[in-house]
Design a protein that fits this description.
With 481 residues, this protein is mainly beta. It has 2 helices and 41 strands. The protein is globular, with a radius of gyration of 28 Å.
Length: 481
């Protein structure tokens, strides 16, 4: 009898354990289903550089429960849901976030429901000079480091049928925005290429002909670019459709800059134009004494631009009235770069000038051994500039004293330095693109193309992107994931 009772108790205990395990499995299955099926989050915006403010909207969570939001598994925000299980939270993309897709996760503290979304960290370079000041410094590019640059990987070049090798010279510099590379060619075609494959997205060919040596500007879904056919074009960035056209009186190889919905661009007719970015209508124009090849910079309500009448001009951005002008000893083809109190520009008289932005008076000059056609770049307290004396210079931005110079194999003409992380990149007519240590001027990497390089490289989203007069666009990556 005792044995019988023990057996019954063992059987009952076993059944109880099975029942508990079964209920636990059922609850687990239901929780998993809720986590993947009912909770959801959206991000606004879903892409942008580091330090971008992001709003997270969530639905389908438990009522009035705490929510933890993480970015790459690190908490960045908290919130409490309402009675319907919805919430809103905000966070700022960490400055240390690397470019590329990064996970965002929201988790309920009581229900344990969760949802994920992806934020695409981008370090786009949407215009010549990178920003309105023409600093040529991309502060968000953090995936291309000195250790990586020695081991860059070829990604793509010359992959579209319409761009046959050797038939298209590229003197305009590439820009990149939202996964698309934009660049114009001497054949009169303007290309939009997939940044990850090099495959054609669209090609724009004006019916009036003309070449593209102007470097494009991309903003709010619109591409702005000038042509040798005298026109400024506004194109749909996705389709290439013409939004508006504005005709100047001369060829355009200068690049546009955008400020407060106004496009500023110079023409070889000697005029600096201010155009409404939406309508393409002229707001004002200012006439200099010669053709304008220089690409304007805008800072604190003033537009700075050079002219081949040997002068650098400061023009009031709203009225088009001259604030001041400074006469150099030769034509100013170089594009100005604006610092805190000084504006820097090169001249064909072999000098780099630093001019006070308020008074228009010279702060200092630095003399190179050749004409300066290249434009200055600003970063880390230094001005970087190329010269036709075959050298790249690093000059103290305050004192004008040389920190270092580095020789290339031929004159540096129109290629302008670009700065990312702690490296300076530039092209030369020796057919090479170089990377230098920004402090010491030592060569970290170089690549030889099939012809001279007049355009300026950019470093963007883990890639070194540049074009050459061999008719190719090159994309070398340091990180492909």
């Amino acid at each position: 009898m005792t044995l019988f009772l023990r057996t019954r108790r063992n059987i009952a205990l076993t059944l109880l354990i099975i029942l508990v395990l079964g209920l636990g499995l059922l609850v687990s299955v239901k929780m998993s289903a809720h986590a993947s099926g009912t909770a959801a989050i959206t991000l606004s915006p879903a892409f942008g550089p580091q330090t971008t403010p992001v709003t997270v909207n969530g639905t389908g969570f438990g009522a009035t429960e705490g929510i933890t939001v993480t970015f790459e598994a690190k908490q960045v925000a908290t919130a409490t849901t309402d009675a319907t299980g919805a919430f809103t939270a905000t966070f700022t993309v960490p400055k240390s976030a690397l470019t590329g897709p990064r996970p965002v996760k929201a988790t309920g503290s009581t229900s344990l429901l969760f949802a994920t979304a992806t934020f695409l960290v981008q370090a786009d370079s949407p215009k010549f000079g990178y920003d309105q000041n023409n600093s040529h410094f991309n502060p968000y590019e953090n995936t291309t480091t000195r250790g990586d640059v020695r081991h860059v990987t070829f990604y793509w070049k010359n992959t579209i049928g319409e761009q046959a090798s050797g038939t298209s010279a590229f003197r305009s510099s590439p820009v990149e925005a939202n996964g698309i590379v934009y660049v114009g060619s001497s054949t009169g075609k303007f290309f939009a290429l997939n940044a990850y494959t090099g495959v054609k997205v669209w090609i724009f060919t004006p019916t009036t002909g003309g070449s593209f040596t102007s470097t494009a500007l991309v903003s709010n879904g619109v591409v702005y670019v000038g042509s040798s056919n005298h026109n400024v074009y506004a194109l749909n960035a996705t389709t290439g459709a013409v939004i508006w056209t504005y005709a100047t009186g001369g060829a355009i190889d200068a690049s546009p800059v955008l400020n407060s919905n106004v496009i500023y661009i110079g023409s070889q007719d000697g005029n600096l134009y201010a155009l409404d970015a939406t309508a393409g209508t002229k707001i004002w124009s200012y006439t200099t004494g010669g053709a304008i090849h220089s690409s304007a910079a805008v800072s604190n309500g003033v537009v700075y631009v050079g002219s081949i009448d040997d002068s650098l001009y400061a023009i009031h951005a709203s009225t088009g009235l001259k604030v001041w002008s400074y006469a150099t000893g030769g034509p100013v083809i170089s594009s100005p770069a604006v610092g805190t109190k000084l504006v820097y520009v090169g001249s064909t008289d072999n000098n780099l000038y630093a001019i006070n932005t308020t008074s228009g008076l010279k702060a200092w000059t630095f003399t190179t051994g050749g004409q300066i056609l290249s434009s200055p770049a600003l970063a880390y307290g230094f001005v970087y500039i190329g010269s036709t004396d075959k050298s790249l210079y690093a000059i103290n931005a305050i004192s004008g004293l040389k920190r270092w110079s580095a020789a290339t194999g031929a004159p540096i003409e129109y290629s302008t330095p670009t700065i990312a992380d702690d490296m300076v990149f530039i092209g030369s007519t020796d057919m090479k693109v170089y990377s230098y240590d920004f402090k010491l001027g030592t060569v970290l990497w170089s690549y030889t193309t099939g012809n001279i390089i007049e355009s300026s490289p950019i470093v963007v989203n883990g890639a070194i992107l540049f074009s050459s007069e061999d008719g190719k666009i090159y994309d070398y990556h340091t990180h492909l994931g």
